[in-house]
Amino acid sequence: ILQAHTAVEEKRQLYMPYNILPLDPESQNQAIMRYPEIQATVSALRNTSGLPWPTDHRMKVNEDILDWLQSQFGFQKDNVANQREHLILLLANVQIRQFPKPDHQPKLDDRALTEVMKKLLKNYRKWCKYLDTKSSLREPTLQQEVQQRKLLYMGLYLLIWGEAANLRFMPECLCYIYHHMAFELCGILAGSPMTGEPVKPVYGGDDEAFLKKVVTPIYETIAKEAKRSKYGKAKHSQWRNYDDLNEYFWSVDCFRLGWPMRAGADFFCQPLEQLRVDKNEKSCFDVFKLKKENEREDN
Q1: How far does CA 26 lie from the centroid of its chain?
Q2: HSE of 107 in the Cβ direction (CA atoms, 13 Å)?
Q3: How far is CA 171 from CA 14, 122, 249, in A?
Q4: pLDDT, tens digit only, all 299 positions of the chain
């Protein structure tokens, strides 16, 4: 039993859990990993040259762009693993349909990269246009860095989406989050225009920082509104559903929320009109309760 346990532990160090793609070093010869399109995308993702890693980061074998994004923004480990497979398969599936075929395989084709990025960020670009706001996506000055930058933009979007949970019902809210985090991403890579020093994300790269500091406060607001709905029995004017909360991000007024998000912003607070309604309802309930008590005393 002990020998079997030791053998399992040794294999656990060699093999990583996966859904479709075995990306650990010991699985390179499996059939699915021999596709040129898969090899090209994996190779492109592992190009981390020029990316500033945190000083206390311990480098691992085959780290890629999504690992770097995790170190900067604090995404969850399993989310990173899932979205890595997601992005690889998206790009490989588009590249395998390209005609004519790319000349230099295995190499990620720019046509596939552009097509997938266009689809992923379509709503974000429409959101920026609707609000007449400049996009946070900046192309690098060096041509050889363009592919890496596009992979970073797509990876960041998928990592935000993968960890957003119920916030996916609020697509413009996700656009707001992505807008600020993509701007921070450009600052990390280009440095501050004043000092030239790399810009640090406002929420840092601590473990699960994105979940705890970005997703959780918004989710708690949604939960409070759902509680006030009284299981759908309350009047709609007395609580906000997903659409109502998402409408907040349809106007430039949403930028009042700031980044980091202000805890006292009106998005997180119950409207004053509603507070008055709730207070009046409570007062009426108290009067009714007092009346019933008086009737029992008279009897």
Answers
A1: 30
A2: 9
A3: 39, 11, 9
A4: 888 878 767 666 556 777 888 888 777 788 888 888 999 999 999 999 989 988 888 888 889 999 999 999 999 999 999 999 999 999 999 998 887 776 666 789 899 999 999 999 999 999 999 999 999 999 888 888 899 999 999 999 999 999 998 899 999 999 999 999 999 999 999 876 667 677 789 998 888 999 999 999 999 988 888 788 776 767 766 677 788 888 999 999 999 999 999 988 888 876 544 444 444 444 333 433 444 455 555 55
176 in Cβ contact with 253 (< 8 Å): no
For residue 255, what are its two tokens? 């930028």
Query: 100 near 110, Cβ under 8 Å?
Result: no
**What's the per-residue H, E or C state across the chain?**
CHHHHHHHHHHHHHCCCCCCCCCCHHHCCCHHHHCHHHHHHHHHHCCCCCCCCCCCCCCCCCCCHHHHHHHHHCCCHHHHHHHHHHHHHHHHHHHCCCCCCCCCCCCCCHHHHHHHHHHHCHHHHHHHHHCCCCCCCCCCCCHHHHHHHHHHHHHHHHHHHHHCHHHHHCHHHHHHHHHHHHHHHHHHHHCCCCCCCCCCCCCCCCCCHHHHHHHHHHHHHHHHHHHHCCCCCCCHHHCCCHHHHHHHHHCHHHHHHCCCCCCCCCCCCCCHHHHHHHHHHHHHHHHHHHHHHHHHHHC
Locate tokens 């797509």: which residue? 154
Inter-CA distances, 70 with 73, 81, 110, Å: 5, 10, 25
